[in-house]
Amino acid sequence: MKKTLLIYMALILFFGIAIAGILHYGTLLESHLFSEVIAPAASSLPTTISDTFLKQLHHPLPLLLIQFIVIMIVTRLFGYLVSFVAQPTVVGEIVAGIILGPSLMGALFPDMFITLFPKESLGNLHLISQLGLIFFMFVVGMELDFDKIKKQSSASVFISHVSIIFPFFLGVALAYWLYPIFAPKKISFIPFALFIGIAMSITAFPVLARIIKEKNIGDTRYGSMAITCAAADDITAWYILALIIAISVSGSLSSSFVLLLLIALYVTVMFYVIRPLFARIGRSQSERLSMNGMSFIIVLLLLSSLATEAIGVHALFGAFMAGAMMPSSALSRLKELIAPRLEYVSLLVLLPLFFALTGLRSEIGLLNSVDAWLICGGIIVLAVFGKLFGSALASKYMGFSWRDSFALGVLMNTRGLMELVVLNIGYEMGILSTELFTMFVVMALATTIMTGPMLNLITRGFKENKVVETMQKSLIDLLSHELRTPLTLIRGAASNLSNPNFNLADKDKEEMVQTIVEGSRRMEKVIDNLLVNARFREGKTPLNKTMLRLEDIISSALAIAENDWNRQAKLSISPDLPPLNGDTALLQLAIGNLLDNAFKYGHEVNLEVSSAFSEITLTLCNNGDLPPPDTIATLGTLPGRLDNSEGKPGSGIGLRLSKNIIEVHGGTLSITLEDNYFCVRVTLRSE
Question: Is the entire prediction scored with pTM above 0.70?
Answer without folding.
Answer: no
